[in-house]
Amino acid sequence: MAQELDPVDVVTVGVGWTGGIIAKELAEEGYEVVGLERGGERSTEDWLTVHDELGYALRYKLMQDLSRETITFRHEPGDTALPMRRYGAFLPGTGVGGAGVHWNGVTWRFLPYDFEIRSETIDRYGEDSIPEDMQLQDWGITYEELEPYFDEFEYMAGISGVAGNIEGEIQDDGNPHEGPRSRDFPLPPMMETPALETFMDGAEEVGFEPFMQPSANLSESYENTDGVQLGQCEYCGYCERFGCEWGAKSDPTVTVLPVAHETGNFELRTHSNVVELLYDEDEEEVTGVKYVDHRTNDVYEQPADVVALTAYVLNNVRLLLLSGIGEPYDPETGDGVVGKNYCYQNFGGAATGFFDDEEWNLYMGAGALGAAFDDINGDNFDHEDRDFLHGGSVSMSQTGERPIANNPVPEDTPSWGSEFKEQSLEYNHSSLSISCQGAVLPFQNNYLDLDPNYTDDYGLPLLRMTFNWHEQDYALSEFASDVCERVMEAMGADTVEATGGLEGDFDIIPYQSTHNTGGAIMGADPEESVVNNYLQCWDAHNLFIPGASAFAHNSGYNPTGTVGALAYRAAEGIEDYLESPDLLADAES
C-alpha cells in the first residue's frame, strides 16, 4: 500500500534541464518544489580524472538500465514489436541532470519557419505540397513569442556563439538564416581550429555561408544571470556521454539546480521512479504522482497542486498513456493525440574525406566545437522543384578523437589485421567528416503507444515505437549527401566517400542521435495536440509537459535550445496558474 506524503506546491517528474529550470524558477518565487529523479545524484567531483571511454562511451554508465525498462520497436503498425535489449540508435540517460549531463552542448534555436511550418508551407507551395499522410501542423506559438525565452536560456547557460541576426540586422560571420535575436550571445564563439577553417573555406567555395556553431562548451569563464560561476572549456575531447569536471559544459547540475537548492524551497529525491500520475478525470486534474523508491521498493504518493512532467521524451509519453490522460493516438483513423507525431533525426547525408598530405591535431576537441551552414535548412532555399520539405544544418564538429572508438579508414579497408592498423595510423589525424542533421517530419504511421506483450520491472507495459523512413526522408538525405560531397571535394580531400543518402528501413541498431521528439505535442487545438503553448495539458489543467515531447515535428537542429526555451515558458505558465488556477487564457489566442 502506498504511503501518502504531505502535499507540496509543485512536483517535477525528472530532474534534467526542464525539471531543473522549473524547480529553480518556482522555488525562487517561494513555492515548495519536490524533484523526483529515478537515478542517482551527480556533481562535478564525480568526473575528476574520469576520462573513461570504455565505461562511459561504450558501456553507457550514464544511461537508463535496459534490463529494468526499455522500449519495443517495429517499422509498421502491422508488425510485432520486439524489445530493444541493448543500446543502439539513441541513448536515454538517467540520474540527476539527465541528458543535460552527457550531451555534447550544441545549442540551436529552431527557425521561425518551424513554428508555423504548415501555414508557411501552404502559403509558399500550396496544400498539395504536403503529402497526404504527412501530419504537418503549426505549434500554436511563433518564434517571436518564444524569442525572450531562448534569450533567457542562452544567458543562463552561457552559450558561446556569434549572432547572425540582431533585431533584423544581418551580422558578419554569424548565421544569416537564423531568426532575429534581441542581442548577441553571452560569450564569443569557440576557437576556429585549422580543421574547421578547412571546412569553412570549402563551404564558402561552394557558395554557402558557414559560421561557428553555438555551443554550451564555454569559450570563456562566465558568471551567469543567476550568479553562478562557470568554467572555461579545456578542449579535452570528453563531452559526449561524459560529465564535465570543470563545469565548463553547461548542465543542470552546475547551473539551475544549485540555485534551486539555495532557496531552501527545493527538495531533490533520487532513486524515485514515478510509475503513475494520479488523475481525476471528472475534475480534469492530477492530484499528484505515485512513485517507487527502487532501493527499498517502498511506494509513495506525493500530492501536489501542480505536476510538471519533465522526464525524457519517451518517458513523458509513456506516463501519460499509463495514467489514462488524453486520448491515445489511433493511426488508422488519425484520432487521438497522445503518442502522435513521433519523429527522429535524419543523418543520412554525410561525407568523409581522406587527405594524403594534411594532418590536424584531432585529439583536442569539445562536444560542440564545430562550424556549420544553414543554407539548406528549413525553407532557407526554394523547394518548388524538390521532392521533400524542410532540410537540415550541415556541420563539421571536432569533438576529439578518443583512442578506442575513433579509427577512420577508407571503406575498402579490412575491418581488422595489419592493413586496418596501417590505415588507422595513416588517417587518424588526416580524415574529416561532415554531415547534414536533417529534419524529420511527422507521418501517420510513425507514433508511440503501449506494447500489449512486454512489461517493465514493475509489470507495467513498455512503450512501443512504430517508426520508419518515408520518401521525404530518402529524398532529403540524398540531396544533403550531394551537398556534403561537393563541400568535401572543395576542402581538398584526396579521397571522398559520401553516403548517397538513406538506404532501406530505419535501423535501430547503430547509434545515430538521441534526438527523439513528439508524442505529447503542443498546438492551439485540443483535438490536434496534448498541450497548449504554455505546455499546459488540455485534459489536466494542472499538468505541464515541457520538453521535446511537445515538438510537433523535428527540425534540422539539436533540440536542447528549444527545450530550454519551452521550459522557461512553462515555468511562467505554472506561476500564473498557481496564482489563478485555470486554463491559461493567453495560450488559446
Automatic annotation (TrEMBL):
This is GMC family oxidoreductase. Belongs to the GMC oxidoreductase family. It comes from Natronococcus pandeyae. Keywords: FAD, Flavoprotein, Oxidoreductase. GO terms for molecular function: flavin adenine dinucleotide binding; oxidoreductase activity, acting on CH-OH group of donors. It holds the Pfam family GMC_oxred_N. Residues 442-567 form the Glucose-methanol-choline oxidoreductase C-terminal domain. Residues 397-417 are annotated as: Disordered. The keyword Isomerase does not apply. Residues 230-342 form the Glucose-methanol-choline oxidoreductase N-terminal domain. The keyword Flavoprotein applies. It comes from the Archaea. InterPro entries: FAD/NAD-bd_sf, GMC_OxRdtase_N, GMC_OxRtase_C.
